[in-house]
Structures are given as C-alpha cells and as structure tokens.
Amino acid sequence: GPRELDRHSKWPMVLRIHGSCLPELVLPLLFIGVWTTAVCLFSRHVRDLGISSTLLTVLGFVVALSLSFRSSTAYERYMEGRKSWTTLMTASQNLARNIWINAEEREDHAKDDLIAKVTALNLIVAFARSLKHRLRFEPYTHYDDLRDLVQHLDTFAKEATELEPERDDPGPVSHWESWGGYLGVSFTISNPRKIIKRAKYPLGNLPLEILNHLTVYIHGIIDAGCLKANPYQTQALNSVLIMNDVQTTTDRILNTPLPLAYAIAISQLTWVYILILPFQLYSTLGLIAIPGTLFAAYIILGFAFIGQEIENPFGHDVNDLPLDNFCNQLAADIDIIATSAPQDTDTFVKSKQNQIMHPLSHEGSEVWKERSLEEIRGALKQKALASMKNVKPRVRSRHNTDKDDGRYERVRASGREVV
C-alpha cells in the first residue's frame, strides 16, 4: 500500500528498495542484459555489429524529450490530486466547524438537534471515505471504514451491496499473480475496473448521494432557524459545492489518463532506443557496453515507470497518495471539533490564565482590565518592540544591513527599547 508517513527508515535513499522502481525493472533489465550480452559476444567472435554513434545522439534527444513530457504530465496529475485532497480537508473542516459552532440547538429540541449535528459531521467523514473507495474502484458500502457511516442512508451502493453477496471478492491470489504484480508483469495485473463491470445492479455515485443528504440537512437547519446568519448559510452551501468540485476534479484525473497514442509511442521509442544501444556502444566500449547499457536502461526505464505509476495517484501503490491516512486525519480533526459544546466568549477571554501581554507580562486579563486604555496600548507597543528583537534579520546586502543597523542603534539611543 501507500507509504506510511509515520514510519522512519534509517537506510540512505540510495540503498532503499521499498518504494523504488527496481523490483518492477528486474525482468526488463534481465532481458536487456541477455540481449546486450548476445550482441557483444556475436560482435566479438563472429562479426562486428557496431554502428556509428550518430543515431545515439539523435534518438537520445528525442527519448529525453519524451520522458520529460511523460514525467512532467504524470507529476502534474499527482500534484493536482494532492491539492484536491488538501482542498477537501479544508472544506470539510470549515463545514464541520460551521455546523458545530454556528448551528444553534433549540431549547425544546436540544437533544434532537445535537444528534442531527453529529450525524452531519459523520456524513462529512463518510464523503471523504466513500470518495477514496470510489477512486480505487471499490463501489460498495461493506468496507470496514465506511459501512457504519452510511448503512442508514438510502443509496444505490447500499442496495447493490445487499443484493450481491459475493460483491467484489476477488478470491485467492495465486503465487503467479502475487509475484507477477510485484515484478510489474502486465499479464498478471488484474483490471481494477472489472468489479464495476461485473456489477449486476446499479452502483450509483455514493459520494454524490452523501452530498445530497448533507444539503438536505443544511436546508433543514436553515428552515428551522438554527443557522440564522446569511454568511453562515452561504459558507455552509459553498463548502458543499467545494466538496462536489473536489469529487469532479479527482474523477477527471482518474478517467482522463495520458492519451493512448502518446503512451504507446513513448514506450515504443524508449524500447527501440535501448535495444539498439549495445550496437552503438560496442564500437567504443567493447564488453564494457554490457554494464553501460544496463545502467542506461535502468535510468530510462526507471523514469518511464515512475511516470506510469504516479499517473494515477489514488491507488494502492507505494508512491500513491496515502488516502487512508488523509481520511483518518480528517475523522480525528472533526472529532476534535465536536469534543466540547460551543462556548461563550467570556469563558476564555476573562480567564485568569489568559496572559494577553505574553511574553511581556504574565498577568491575566482580569489584572489588565483594571488598567487604563493608555496603559494597555502602551504595553502593546512595548510588546511589539520586544517581539521585533527576537526576529532574525533577513539576508541582505552589506549596504542595506549597515543602514538597518544604524536605524536600530538610533531606536535604542532614543530610549524606546523595552528593558
């Protein structure tokens, strides 16, 4: 699965295997090694097959340009997926905070309103987790992290889950499929979309249906007068729109890969270049062309494989986005928002532990309340001057630094420095 961010490896990057493209390149490099060895031995003992290196220069430029295009396109998709999930985290937290703080609980229906608010917060978490499963071609509702959050909703995915007992059970994985997938053999890699193709009942769009339920809740609290201020209402509906926009953006990334003609052409050009490489290197390197070709093939195929792997950043590969961690973090953040009831401002503003002039003074707000406005504003100015002393100067030219130092000395000489 995707890399666990809380785990730390002490191995240097150059020696790490987990997450690298080396396992998937074992078979291609083995084939290239055999091919290069055969070409070099034939040229040494039978007939010299060496050719001019002019073709090496021309094709090398084209291959480099193609791989650069492939890598930049794939990384752009990866970054767009990461930014989309960041946007989802922000919109979800804003919506949860807006509902929890700004949606009032009516005195005669306080318990019902509280239960409804908690339900809405759970739907926000359910949206993120259902979107994660949708992007991984897991369209049902029986998954451990999702089932309890959506089993009370009337959705197409729930109905399909109940009507299809076998659902998406892939069955036992053979050793051939396991090792073939680890080594990147395309013939053993299963089509992730086959679960959707085999579905006997409509699967619907679970994240979109969850947004429908969230919108119904928002309209309900607006009609009931719980969410009174127009800015709060607008913010809540805008958050839902942003969540919907994130879904459409991630769907676009998933369903619009690099055009097939580009992918095929880049793959063919890369392999042609590698296969004719020993013919061009043998004339100048001799048998050293064997390790030289292998090293060049590792670099070229490595960049091609990386571009192919991160093109879809939502899967289960090591270098994919850690969507499980993102969803768990969002669930924890929303639970933190709901840990306490909305507080009155006075509970923390008038607290004795509220040191409003920290670090200039450790006195509480009640002490400063007894002082005049002029004393408070004067203390704020002294606090600013004290804070500026702790700011490290930016790197500037010597001329500008000398002028700034002179101005600072004049400030100190004027007696405005806090002692």
From TrEMBL:
<keyword id="KW-1003">Cell membrane</keyword>
<feature type="transmembrane region" description="Helical">
    <location>
        <begin position="260"/>
        <end position="279"/>
    </location>
</feature>
<keyword id="KW-1133">Transmembrane helix</keyword>
<keyword id="KW-0472">Membrane</keyword>
<feature type="transmembrane region" description="Helical">
    <location>
        <begin position="285"/>
        <end position="306"/>
    </location>
</feature>
<dbReference type="Pfam" id="PF25539">
    <property type="entry name" value="Bestrophin_2"/>
</dbReference>
<keyword id="KW-0812">Transmembrane</keyword>
<dbReference type="InterPro" id="IPR044669">
    <property type="entry name" value="YneE/VCCN1/2-like"/>
</dbReference>
<protein>
    <submittedName>
        <fullName>UPF0187 domain membrane protein</fullName>
    </submittedName>
</protein>
<feature type="transmembrane region" description="Helical">
    <location>
        <begin position="21"/>
        <end position="44"/>
    </location>
</feature>
<keyword id="KW-0813">Transport</keyword>
<feature type="region of interest" description="Disordered">
    <location>
        <begin position="387"/>
        <end position="419"/>
    </location>
</feature>
<dbReference type="GO" id="GO:0005886">
    <property type="term" value="C:plasma membrane"/>
</dbReference>
<dbReference type="GO" id="GO:0005254">
    <property type="term" value="F:chloride channel activity"/>
</dbReference>
<feature type="compositionally biased region" description="Basic and acidic residues">
    <location>
        <begin position="399"/>
        <end position="419"/>
    </location>
</feature>
<feature type="transmembrane region" description="Helical">
    <location>
        <begin position="50"/>
        <end position="69"/>
    </location>
</feature>
<keyword id="KW-0406">Ion transport</keyword>
